[in-house]
Design goal:
Layout lengths: L17 E3 L1 H6 L4 E6 L11 H14 L4 E5 L5 H12 L3 E6 L12 H8 L3 E4 L5 H14 L4 E3 L7 H17 L5 E6 L3 H12 L5 E6 L4 H18 L12 E3 L12 H14 L8 H13 L8 E6 L10 H4 L5
Parallel strand pairs: 2-10, 3-4, 3-6, 4-5, 7-8, 7-10, 8-9
Antiparallel strand pairs: 1-2
Helix pairs in contact: 2-3, 2-6, 3-4, 6-7, 6-8, 7-8, 9-10
Bound molecules: pyridoxal-5'-phosphate.
The site of pyridoxal-5'-phosphate has 20 residues, from helix 3, strand 7 and helix 7.
């Protein structure tokens, strides 16, 4: 089946590399492992939001917008990539972040430091809930004649997710099909796009999401719905029930953004076996899940498995205290 071509700006360096992980496979005594390097999308340290932004910014341009508005955590990779993409195409960028600006220079690190270097306007929401703060910021921009364009949390609407349907087509041109794709899932757009794309181009892999912050039932429901909307946008009908979406929520640890021992070990294993850097919030957690699923035999030793690296590495620096050698 062909997928409708949506208007898209060129931001990412595509295709991203597909690489084998022989030393990691050997260390785990397990399946044949490969990695898709969306940490190398080429936009201000890269990541999965770059692909979504190619479609979202084309829409913003077509709508005559002048200011991009979005929200995320203080260490949001989505906000950092949005800020970078905005400058490249001449948009202003407003980022709505929770809490108060840090008062110590040392806390201006990782993605937050980059947001500021990239010239984004940071609006601190204090205790106001995220969606409400974003709505208020949007209305202020509108009233001030700044022609705002609303980019949802994680860039995860059907338009953003569509980028990952295209990414499945890209992958299928790079190598014979994998049995399974493992990725970090949070706002669900990446997984929904991959699921929709796999159906549309008849790519046979199971798409296994490792939830970073939500119960599996909620992620399944949302991904199934968003995959359907994404397929419609691409000119096809797809109706999925939540049970057809695979999500593991066994790795939530102490919650979003709290790096525990499993993430720390996964980061060290990838770094020391393959020279690949993961991040403490998303890919470190997804890799910890991958390692555990292999150890428990849920991922079989004969499978060909692709780990989709979704980026996030600048956040490593915001976790330096937790990652430093013990006793230092
Ligand atoms: C945003 C993000 C994800 C999650 O992608 P969703 O589409 O929000 O599910 C995974 N990894 C990294 C590094 C991210 O920044």
């Amino acid at each position: 089946m062909t997928i409708a071509a949506l208007p898209r700006l060129t931001i990412a360096a595509l295709p991203t590399p597909l690489q084998p992980l022989p030393r990691l496979s050997a260390a785990l005594g397990g399946p044949e492992l490969w990695i898709k390097r969306d940490d190398l999308t080429g936009l201000a340290f890269g990541g999965n939001k770059t692909r979504k932004l190619e479609l979202l910014l084309a829409d913003a341009q077509a709508a005559g917008a002048r200011t991009l508005l979005t929200t995320g955590a203080v260490q949001s990779n989505h906000c950092r990539q949005t800020a970078a993409a905005a400058t490249r195409f001449g948009f202003e960028c407003v980022l709505v972040l929770p809490g108060q600006p840090p008062s110590e220079a040392a806390a201006w690190t990782g993605n937050l430091l980059l947001d500021q270097l990239l010239g984004a306007e940071l609006q601190w929401a204090g205790q106001t809930p995220r969606e409400q703060a974003l709505t208020e910021a949007f209305e202020r921009c509108l009233a001030d004649g700044r022609k705002p364009y609303w980019i949802p949390y994680g860039g995860s609407n059907a338009l953003g997710a569509a980028a990952y349907a295209y990414a499945v087509a890209e992958l299928s041109d790079q190598a014979p099909p994998f049995d399974r794709v493992v990725l970090a899932t949070s706002s669900g757009g990446t997984q929904a796009g991959l699921v929709a794309g796999a159906h549309l181009v008849r790519y046979p892999a199971r798409i296994s999401g490792i939830s970073v912050d939500q119960a599996a039932a909620a992620v399944r429901r949302w991904v199934a719905e968003l995959a359907g909307e994404t397929a419609s946008l691409l000119g096809h009908r797809l109706h999925l029930v939540p049970d057809e979406v695979e999500v593991f929520d066994d790795y939530l640890g102490a919650g979003y953004g709290v790096m525990g021992e499993p993430e720390h070990q996964a980061i060290c294993l990838f770094a020391r076996s393959e020279g690949i850097l993961l991040d403490p919030v998303y890919t470190g957690r997804a890799a910890a899940g991958l390692i555990d699923l292999i150890r428990r035999g849920i991922i079989g030793p004969k499978e060909r498995v692709l780990f989709w690296h979704t980026g996030g590495t600048p956040a490593l620096f915001a976790y330096n205290a937790a990652l430093a050698p013990q006793g230092s």
